[in-house]
Amino acid sequence: MKKKKPSGTSLLYQLIGEARGYDDAIVLGRGDPDFDTPPHIVAAAKRAMVEHYQDHSPPQGLLALRQAIAERVKRVNNIDVDPETEVVVTNGGQEALFLMVLAVIAPGDEMIVPEPNYNTYADSLAFAGGIKAEVQTYAESDFRADPAAVRAAITDKTRALLLVSPNNPAASVISPADMREMLEIASEHDLMILADDIYDLFVYDDFEHISPASLPGAKERTLTLNALSKSYSMTGWRLGWIVGPADLMARVTELKAAISGGTSVISQHAGIAALTGPQDAVEMMAEAYRRRRRLVLDALDAMGVRYGMPQGGQFVFADIGFTGLDSAEVAQRMVSEQHVLAYPGSAFSKDRKDYLRMTFLQPEAQLREGLRRMKIVIDKIVAGK
Amino acid sequence: MASDNKSALLRRQRANEHLNSPLLQPMARDDKDLSYDGVQARLDERIIDAAAAALDDGQTHYVDVPGIAPLRAAVAEHLRDSAAGHYQESNIVITAGMQEARFLSMQMIGENFNSIALPAALDPGARKALGTRERQPSFLPVAPARGYLPSVDAIAQAAADGCRLFYLESPARLSGAVYTAAEVAAISQIAADNDAAVIWDQGLAPWVAGAYASLAALDSDCARTAAIGELASGMGLASWFIGYIAAPARWIAALQSQKQIMAICTSTAAQYAALGASEIYSELHAPRLSALGALRADLAASAAALGIAVVPGAAQNILCLQVTAAQRETISAAGFAYADGSHFGASEVVRLAVNDAAAAALGALT
Description:
heterodimer, A: alpha/beta, Aspartate Aminotransferase, domain 2, four-stranded antiparallel beta sheet, 12 helices, 15% strand, globular, B: alpha/beta, Aspartate Aminotransferase, domain 1, 12 strands
């Protein structure tokens, strides 16, 4: 029997597994910042192990953390929420994402998803029995989600509109004008909005992030997720949140209770320290990502690789179609021949086999070396070797 | 403007009886909260040191989806050593607590079956996990005299009726009752004869005095039993939310995939804390079980002296009592919270956590 080639998430696991076997591997795949969690957050967690390990946390999270989240979304996102009834703490942004989809999608419902997008949205939709209505975006327009295309995709089964800004993997940012138009569309067609703001602190050049729930009339139909993983380098703590109107959040709370019951109290105390403590580490990391982004783009330019300009986020979605190979094969060769891990675009969308997602979550020296090795592979492929 | 879309989904939720089941917490809200089924205990400094050392070592990042390898190995070893399964490291998925273990196992193993049979009285968290998607559950009859465990005959009848997936608790989360070794052998035979599978909640097994018979222990090939439970129970880690699924190899890929989709991994610090706990578990657990046993015996005697029937149970951390409405009111009026049997499916009883406050709660009835 012919062995089936791995695809999607299984392909990613295979590539990750192979990269792990090389001592000199350079990992430009997973969205896990190279920085460790800032020391004052770790210190708060250690204190919590002594002082707060018997704290009782309801499924929606400790009130002190929900208050800190409410203050954060007001300050950063201009969203007003009541910490008592409009915030739910989650096991990372991933659980928040899963809960948001479960909260609004029933079997047969359609959700509009600008593509390419983070593959877990499709997986969560599949779990809920929903249907992904894809709206394609293109590198030529920096992966802009066109409101007209969104409007055209609406059917009588459409229930929700997904707005991820900055987007993963394409790193596009929805402009304020487009965001207003998206809200108009959602209002006209009575759609729920699922907003993923996880990269909201990482926006470059003159681009501007706007949270849909901050727009007049939007809050009542919008669930917004975020997490501390990317902004505070806290991926291992599994701490995120959803904010939204009280009626929908009551449903989110029931679902949160059903799928995991609660969130580690130690992580929650770390989260309080992150949100209420000094923020200089966040700015330091953001500045590092700005420099690294420039480094990666310059290297890709030198290789003649096209990309949609990453307006935000922590990655570049690069078009390697000129090699003549599927990006899964390119990614495989990069791992096997040069021990560099990047994610093939097909893991994010079946129509993006020409793309690689490369993070800039490694120190600059590592990035330079990774890009040097990538060029060796690309040059060999182009030369027909 | 009012949203018909939102109104419709909120109506759907209100109609979802299983999803709206209450969720009991693993630990007490306050000194008078007796509704939990965990064991409150001091967090040993060595466990704190293990977690802190991992953090100092930079373990603040994602880890493998099913859990860190040494913890999975420790869980498998512990299950083998305590005659609670023949699992290997590769059979283990570390979860963000008991409820996630329930959800993942019921939903993902359940995808392979048309229906699932559950005890008519069981932890409301199981109903809640079931309610996240449309499923066709059937409920196995239970009776107080048997500690609300479905009989072997009821399980056999359900299998004869075509059910191929069972969710069973032993100890029962309501009463602490356990299946005897002979009953477990009979259930194992029913599963084998009918090519059926069982999700076996053995989370309270560490609190059983004396021998405990695990269905997983009879599944020598790890072919049809998925065992679930809390990790490091009674070690002060209840608020860290950490549990496990030990499952046959054929279901592991689906469990890991769904774990990735819904959480990526379980808190790294919690996993290292649980690993630290595994190293001192045998030292700390036995005296805690012994102390609970003595306390429970006293509580049972006090209840009997009040004319209150104690539902049979072997788990020493909980006590299930048949109380009158007036007695419930008295306990509540004294400020104590209990787990209401009606939330499990047995309105005639309440469940108390075994601790010093439970004595005071019973004292309020004198």
